[in-house]
């Protein structure tokens, strides 16, 4: 899996958390019921051994094994009105903030 953070997203993350290195997870959760869908959001978190890791200039982004399967081979985190998580085929979520 390739994981990218755009320059706009890097600037926004550093404005939110200027004091230290920041670890952010692209969290994916299965939500069952009559239909199956996955919730995707951004949260501050800690490393798990099986995570995919993006690490650049004090910004660390993590994706779990489950998230890798759902998100695909290439994921980009961008910033506009809020944070967005995109794959080559679609924008999965947009307008996100980072939960602390």
UniProtKB/TrEMBL annotation:
It comes from the Bacteria. InterPro entries: ATAP_core_dom, HesB-like_dom_sf. SUPFAM superfamilies: HesB-like domain. Residues 1-80 form the Core domain. It holds the Pfam family Fe-S_biosyn. This is Core domain-containing protein.
């Amino acid at each position: 899996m390739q994981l990218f953070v755009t320059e706009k997203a890097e600037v926004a993350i550093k404005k939110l958390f200027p004091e230290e290195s920041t670890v952010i997870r692209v969290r994916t959760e299965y939500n069952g019921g009559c239909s199956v869908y996955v919730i995707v959001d951004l949260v501050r978190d800690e490393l798990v051994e099986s995570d995919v890791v993006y690490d650049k200039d004090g910004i660390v982004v993590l994706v779990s094994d489950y998230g890798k399967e759902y998100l695909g081979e290439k994921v980009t985190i961008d910033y506009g009105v809020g944070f967005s998580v995109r794959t080559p085929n679609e924008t999965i979520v947009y307008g996100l903030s980072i939960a602390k």
